[in-house]
Amino acid sequence: MANQKVDDIDRSFYDFRYEENEDFYRMRSGLTEEIVREISEAKHDPKWMLDFRLKSLEIYNRLEIPNWGAPIDGLNMDNISTYVRNKADMKRSWDEVPDDIKNTFERLGIPQAERESLAGVGAQYDSELVYHNLQQEVADQGVVYTDLESALTGEFEQMCKDYFMKLVPPTDHKFAALHGAVWSGGSFVYVPKGVKVEVPLQSYFRLNARGAGQFEHTLIIVDEGADLHFIEGCSAPKYDESNLHAGCVELYVKRGARLRYSTIENWSKNMYNLNTKRALVEEDAVMEWVSGSFGSHVSYLYPTTILRGRNSHCEFTGVTFAGAGQNLDTGARMIHMGKNTSSFINTKSICKSGGISTYRSSVEIKKTARGAKAAVSCGSLMLDSQSRSDTIPAVVVETNEADVGHEATIGRISDDAVFYLMSRGVSEEEARAMIVSGFASDVSKELPLEYAAEMNNLIKLEMENG
Amino acid sequence: MAHDNTLRVGHIPALTWNSLKMNEGSVSGDLTLNAQTGVSFRDLPQGVTHRKLTMDQASRWLSDHAPGQEAERFVAGKVPIYHPQTFGTGLGGEYEAFLNKACSRCDLLEVAKGTQVESPLSWHIDFYDGNRAAAAQIIHLEEGACLTLILDYASDREAAGLAALSTRIVLERDARLTFVTAQTLGRRFLHLSDIGASQADASRLEIVDLDLGAGESFLGIQAEQIGRGAVLSGHMGYMAVGDQKVDINYNVVQRGKKTQSDFDFDGVLEGKGYKSFRGTIDFRNGACAAKGNEQESVLLLSPDVVNKTLPIILCEEEDVEGAHGATIGRLSDEMLFYMTSRGIDKETAERIMVRARLDAVAGKVPDEALREKLTAYIEETFSDEAN
Hints:
The complex is a heterodimer. Chain A is an alpha/beta fold. Chain A has helices at residues 33-42, 47-62, 99-108, 110-117, 136-140, 148-153, 157-163, 174-182, 415-422, 428-439, 441-444, 449-464; strands at 24-26, 84-86, 120-125, 128-134, 144-147, 187-191, 201-206, 213-214, 217-222, 227-235, 243-245, 248-253, 258-266, 271-274, 276-281, 286-293, 298-301, 304-307, 313-322, 327-336, 342-351, 356-365, 372-382, 388-397, 402-411. In chain B, the strands form three sheets. In chain B, strands 3, 4, 5, 7, 9, 11, 13, 15, 17 and 19 form a ten-stranded mixed beta sheet that branches. Chain B has an eight-stranded parallel beta sheet with strand order 6-8-10-12-14-16-18-20, with helices on one face.
């Protein structure tokens, strides 16, 4: 076995780029009403959407930058272009996608994954979807998987209107307002009543443009008794200047439905990842989050679940790996409103080489959530003393008919465990690498094989660097 | 000494979402004081001295014995919202400034080097109806000294007033202090109690705190473990019944190698009882082989109670072990089944569990008479609530 050591994640696999050429349209940098109007016009928004964007901009200008969390002083909206797109329209056939973009996704393995393990794929390059496809047999079940722009003006316009940014209103926080003003791209998914989609759908987001923002919106409605696994992946090449990702994910899980939402996030280290994800879960429904956060310079990411329906349930499983130059503030929020709701948060944080990892969460049991049960388990692993790991979990309980348990631990790699492995012929460095892999296995074992392999690769590539 | 404003107290060193309203406590209303209480010990053991300082003298004394400038520089942790204090406390700078204006003197109790005080030293303060008083004290144990100090303050159950206390503790190398506080103020009292401690090498601080009375209580504990092998252990018991509110901020900063902290918080909420607990274990770089543990257990007895818990671990040192745990909820179904199968009804079962929880803290009070008084107080409170 080759010598291994635990080191930063090697992102060279993702760090390739194609320079923008005359085929690309780039909005001038900054954030003004004129820019918002121009984006709206370019996207052929209906009138209500333009009004929504302008209202969001007004809210953005009014709201303060959060006083908690990782510093985002290095993010200057005056230097961010909020809209960059290839002039070609979205394609339904892979062969028609422009070569540079096609090569990008080929290198990331997306078409291969589509062929082998997915029911449908959406690929976003900078601000717009460049490819969207759904397997015919899944479409025949009535499943809708399309770009959000098409849904906004087609037969699902009213549904979009009813659900778009209702879970995450622009007033929620400054970057939700920013998203409302300049959102572009993203997917709309509707799974009809009782339909079980056997293999996952995937959206992949690639931000290639220098000094740009990506603001895709994902809206998923899983109707009563339906079942879906949706996978989201993201990456970007590294630039010297800041990039911004302020996407928004809104998930509606109807009565008796089940939705699993898996994310492997591997943005480059110049990325400010200020993403908002939220799910509303109805009676007897199940929401499952699987989240791996490996990239970004700064991350604010706390998928939130509102357990509104009686007997609804949510599980969040997450791992965060913060290396040199990274400040990753991640976690989850559970809001229990319905009777006999239950939730479980299980997270692992790893930090090294000066990386900062913060686990932040809240479990809120509202007065109406009689019989609620919640458990939180968070573990942090410090790999050196240049790094920092913080745990900030909150619990709010407003009824006596609830049971909440919380446990958190922080520490280093156990000397005993290393000694045990070494006594069986494993070198110390190999032993440390094995222990870190095992520590993150809670997430990888929840992913489909191909994605678990990708996640393990992210860690393994790094370990092999030594 | 007139103050009528809002004090922000007990800030956490790393902020979280403002919407949770858990980043700090807020004391509002009439903060006017009309008296200052003091201590008078009749017969102090040999090696123990007591003197009164002006607040200016006390500030200078504290500055000379502060955990060091490093504490001031880093006390903000991640987010610099603290009003820097030379000598950090759990309730923080605004409360310190309030007391510095409100008080005219501070009691300094000192135990000389190597002095082992065998019997606990008791300090009882009676608050009366209408009493709005402050008490500031410094407890200083020189190298190798050992003391148990009991601070017991009470009033009639129906009394109204304000009790504002501040205790600074300085433990030199190998010093050992057991500090016991028992509070049974009237339900119409506003109560603030603030502790700041500095611990040198191998010093041991044990805090036993039972907060049972007062309509609204703000409790702060901060310990700076600057010395190698310093140990903090503690057990706090509280109850919030009727419309009582309890706000607790606990913060231990572990700087020294092989330091240890281990604190348990046990509480009972009934009626419209409200409790907010913020507890931080803060491992600083260099605290090799440090261990920190914090456990909270809250028994919820009524549908209108509100419990907030925020147990934080901040860590910038690899070689540490930190853990916190919380169990919040009603009497477990298993326990209830066990009790009822033995002919005990639900209400009685809950009373037994309340007693078990709070008596575990009361049992650590090294004064039998006070222990019995506290147990009786708990019984009486829950009898009243039941009626």
